[in-house]
Write a structure and sequence with these properties.
The strands form 2 sheets. This protein has a two-stranded antiparallel sheet with strand order 1-2. Strand 1 and strand 2 form a beta hairpin. The longest helix has 19 residues. It is α+β, with helices and mostly antiparallel strands and 133 residues long. The chain has 5 helices and 4 strands; from the N terminus they run αααααββββ. Helix content is 59%, strand content 15%.
Amino acid sequence: MGRFRDRLTRFMYGRYGVDQLNRFLMGIVVVSLVLSLFIHHQLFYWLTVLGIGISYFRMFSKNIRKRSQENNRYLQATDGVRKSFARMKSRSQDKSHCYFKCPSCKQTVRVPKGKGKICITCPKCSKEFIKKT
């Protein structure tokens, strides 16, 4: 197994490898494969083949600068979506606080859990509202 890993490492030297855009493409490939199990249509087959082809092309490419630019454009395009998912994940893991939106300015306010009914003052617009934590 060590020889194979060494050969693969030598082969991949100077090549681009896997990045976030490739992971996204592989996710599309998996979804199209699952859909092709239930919906027998040529579109899903060709989408799978195209996704695998583009992903392997990007992975084995020696034009690292161009592939990096493509990945940066993808990251810029999906920045808002990725940040909102990260925010939702951190909030779901925060067991000691509740999150409320201010009714007037829609600012998110974090308050401690288990305090009962409390009066919350928005730090942005100073509006007071009552919520149960």
